[in-house]
Amino acid sequence: MHSSHLLLEEPIRMASILEPSKASFFPAMTKIVGTLGPKSRSVEVISACLKAGMSVARFDFSWGGPEYHQETLENLKAAVKVTKKLCAVMLDTVGPELQVVNKSETAISLLADGLVVLTPDQKREASSEVLPINFDGLSKAVKPGDTIFVGQYLFTGSETTSVWLEVSEVKGNDVVCVIKNSATLAGSLFTLHASQIHIGLPTLSDKDKEVISTWGVQNKIDFLSLSYTRHAEDVRQAREYLSKLGDLYQTQIFAKIENAEGLTHFDEILQEADGIILSRGNLGIDLPPEKVFLFQKAALYKCNMAGKPAVVTRVVDSMTDNLRPTRAEATDVANAVLDGSDAILLGAETLRGLYPVETISTVGRICAEAEKVFNQDLYFKKTVKYVGEPMTHLESIASSAVRAAIKVKASVIICFTSSGRAARLIAKYRPTMPVLSVVIPRLKTNQLRWNFSGAFEARQSLIVRGLFPMLADPRHPAESTSATNESVLKVALDHGKASGVIKSHDRVVVCQKVGDASVVKIIELED
């Protein structure tokens, strides 16, 4: 039963599976991104989410205005203070999302084999015969035989709140469709997805730009999740836009791959973006079901080799209404971890789900179990081989630190970094122990005032598997001229001891810069 991705004792004792897992300070190395919304915006619930393992909070602007999200964010800040757990902020753009507009909000029943007309005329009332949409170019983009999905949370196969349409004819600006399954659409807005069809709308809409330049700037967002990224140029344009907005030049851009167009240009997008989100909800519609796993495995491998964080979405949909995931979902979360995912993104499960906190802790527990059997040795060899020789200076230091830590069975790797790059490179080699990334603030000036950088870099490592940041005191330099950098190191070790990651007689691998040289050293702790 030997599987290349799994590290299991041969042959595995079945009884050992039932043994309870040892509790550890870090619930899992894999990170959890939670979407905050109606069911998860009070200080109490957000605090519980942070304690359960959420390290990035996602604000989805597909619904809810800036004031609404600002209230939620103020509650998040309060929760961070109460729990003393860092949390990064991700703004998710709307992008070229097509929507059916149902002003009256009355439920619409659609019956299989009937006809329904999609029209750009938004003055018309939504009904069983007519669905007004927010895009006037659909009739030019589709042809008879094309498939279109409409639903509040997109067609997953099990929901009766979504409908599958087939284009039968195009009449002027209207598109006449045959209804393939009976469904009831409830609510004011439903997403519409035209399968494998190019939609001629900008990736960063004017509405998105307005939200980023006001709400985004005001709150110094750590991540921008760029919905419907289809080309590398989309990322370049978004970056150019962010570079003009004060502190947002530091914001990382995560390209959200949601359709066949993004998949086709995946390699170029990966080069430009800081990370990738595999939006499996929409991708599951654009791809035949039998191809979804292949895309996931190939995309995660490419992200891992590039050392860029990869985030997987739509894992435990059923937990929106249930306390336990289905067995397929539980297996799916574990496979995402074994495939190399850095983080799991929860959408509806935390946004409107009944059990936001339980969902986060359940996903965290599954991730932790999968990490125990992740074949790090094989992964390490594969990565070193992929990087090839000669390695860059930093890459060689990072891989050596990980190899040393594994050989001496270190309990933690401590890495001093100011840009966060060194710590991310260490994490790229997926060490089996946590990496404490000690971010050393740098003093910067804009000729008017001095300020320290570092908070962005620390929070941005909250989406990388195995990286746990702490901000150092700027008075203790990391790159000290003498070879003793004990001050910051002592603080980091004390932090590790207090949190239970490091015990006496443990070995710790430290990666730091001393003068111009990078040093990897092994420390054995006294009592």
Automatic annotation (TrEMBL):
Which pathway does it serve? Carbohydrate degradation; glycolysis; pyruvate from D-glyceraldehyde 3-phosphate: step 5/5
Q: What is its EC number?
A: 2.7.1.40
Q: Which cofactor does it need?
A: K(+)
Q: What residue stretches are annotated with the Pyruvate kinase barrel domain? A: 30-360
Q: What GO biological process terms are annotated to this protein in UniProt?
A: glycolytic process
Ranges for the Pyruvate kinase C-terminal domain?
395-515
Keywords (A to Z) from UniProt: ATP-binding, Glycolysis, Kinase, Magnesium, Metal-binding, Nucleotide-binding, Pyruvate, Transferase
Please name the SUPFAM superfamilies in this protein's record. Phosphoenolpyruvate/pyruvate domain (SSF51621), PK beta-barrel domain-like (SSF50800), PK C-terminal domain-like (SSF52935)
What family does the Swiss-Prot or TrEMBL record give for this protein?
Belongs to the pyruvate kinase family.
Can you say what this protein is called?
A: Pyruvate kinase
